[in-house]
Amino acid sequence: MIQHFNFKPLFENSQLPGWAISFFYQRERYTAEYLKDGNIQWTGSTPPNEEDVKKMIHELMLYHVYE
Question: What is the pTM of this model?
Fold first, then answer.
């Protein structure tokens, strides 16, 4: 389960899509960029079960950003 999920716009103009995200997964902190096309680029290490983590991130972004 993802914990302490945070996101902020990549650009000062918040109308431009793209977000810096960070979260904890299995007691490790991960950071990434969530791009406008839904791709995730890891800026640090890649979490285990990457595909499962990506699905959780997409759900969180849909809930928080695309309400």
Answer: 0.86
The two structure tokens encoding residue 8: 């902020």
Residue 10 in tokens: 């990549």
Check if the beta carbon of residue 2 is closer than 8 Å to that of residue 57: yes
Whole-angstrom Cα distance, residue 58 to residue 52? Answer: 10
Length of the chain equals 67
pLDDT tens per residue across span 8-56: 988 887 666 789 999 999 999 999 999 988 899 999 999 999 999 999 9
E strand residue ranges, 1-67: 2-9, 19-25, 28-34, 40-42
* Distance, CA of 27 to chain centre: 16
Closest by Cα among 29, 7, 30 to 20: 7
